[in-house]
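Quick question, first post here. What does this chain look like in 3D?
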Amino acid sequence: MRMLCSKKMREQVVFKSTLIFLFIYRVISTPPEDPINCSSKNTNCTITNTYGVFPDRSICQAGEVMYPTTEEELISMVASASKNNTKMKAATRFSHSIPKLVCPDGQNGLLISTKNLNQILKTDAAAMTMTVESGVTLRQFISEAAKAGFALPYTPYWWGITIGGLMATGAHGSTLWGKGSAVHEYVVELRIVSPAGPEDGYAKVRDLNESDEDLNAARVSLGVLGVISQVTLKLEPLFKRSLTYLKKNDSDLGDELITFGRKHEFADVTWYPSQKKAVYRIDDRVSLNKSGNGLYDFIPFRTTLSAELAVVRATEELQEATHDANGKCIGARLITATLAGTGYGLTNDGFFLGYPIVGFNNRMQSSGTCLDSLNDAKITACPWDSRIKGEFFHQTAFSIPLSVVKNFIEDVQKLVELEPEALCGLELYDGILMRYVTASKAYLGKQEDAVDFDISYYRSKDPLAPRLFEDILEEIEQIGLFKYGGLPHWGKNRNIGFLEAIQKYQNADKFLKVKEVYDPRGLFSSQWTDQVLGLKEGLTILKDGCALEGLCICSQDSHCAPNKGYFCRPGRIYKEARVCTRDVQNTKGENDEKDEL
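> Answer (accepted):
Ran it through. Tokens below.
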């Protein structure tokens, strides 16, 4: 292995795998398989997410899955399970959430998939609203709205999610304008099917609109109130926007971040901390008369040859095994330079010849063409498809209030000064994406205007294998979540992202009261959701290596990897943090009790 790691050979491997990753995308792709698998027809089932595993590496079991095609069928299914006191969970077509929100308790639970609840029900041109079933994908919604001459202005950038699923987790795009970037802010009516008693036929359809206070619970429900059947969203007339990416030094990023979101409607910032660079998305509405047929087909969301993904993964595994931080930095610089040179997937009439790129909102706001075909995953796939050897990563996402975001940025910059190569691994995943979010009336929505930090980084297939610069990544996570009180993204994060999180929401008690009314027997709850909502203990899982996977914050060396030279130590700049630090001078035989913190 060492023979392969001369500087010249490392650079060649990184260069070739990087170019493969970025340029082999114009091939037919493979959509992810159904996240639900059953040993017999719709019974004895398991469910996971599209990444193939939950934060604790479990796969959840269920006794049965049902696929309603109408609201009437959905009501019947919920009623039957309610009558029999059966635990239930709603599941979606693609299952892109990382935490275990879809897991029912026990092997006899019922999964209700919204895969076939995928109809556009009504477009009201006068009211500028569209009513859809909850299994409609974001891609489908954007397309149908555009055909009618309308736009949902702010959405997530990945379109392989459903309306019901993205609402349950508070998914969002980026803006500080208007009502903000979260899709749930534009819901004007919602129908949800909840369990009930015999007097209501064991299921109750609750039709909520903006005059109902309970809508603020249902906007971000975590799936514990029932199954959303229909959603009505407020739209706008279709418009054009103009997008330019501008790369700058990150020396003034803390100050710029506070003001940039007020200047541009669709602003976001991508940060490459080890390169000390930031890419600003200058993105605004323009007149319909402005020429341009722009399209945003984000390159990392395009299809890739599975064999080439395997090469990229093998390269990163080699870099991790040999502690080759420089190799990661070389690869990161190649990736970010190539993405910039190709406009990140922006084109005008099929070509990228420079900025600005002008196009209709429906062609610029979201993408994900790796979902498009039915070919064999062994040939092509989305980069993270669990059926192949491709990307496998942790994802940490939290929102820092605008009032303290500069301080958080400066703390990360201090860590980079101490370890200049520490965050090259993040840059292999296109850096830290920073999106703007606004305060929400939703009980589990954002509490104030903030910046959402979305951080993806290498995850080993071996849960007991530490990462390069494990301590730096853990310290950033703990600084964001605990020093600055960051709110977790409900659909992302490792276990520690949710530690005491519910206490940060001033209306959490109101949400729990609605939950008690809608589902008093907790049929749509699980051990996991009860832990996240602070109703049960056990969110932290203490065992050997638990800190490596974010199942705990280390308090003793065994929570790290002492046999590989990683020990539990205080943070570099945030001394309250407890992180797994590499200390090759230490010995495997040290007593954990002596190092307990």
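The CA atoms of residues 415 and 573 lie 7 Å apart.
The first strand starts at residue 36 and ends at 40.
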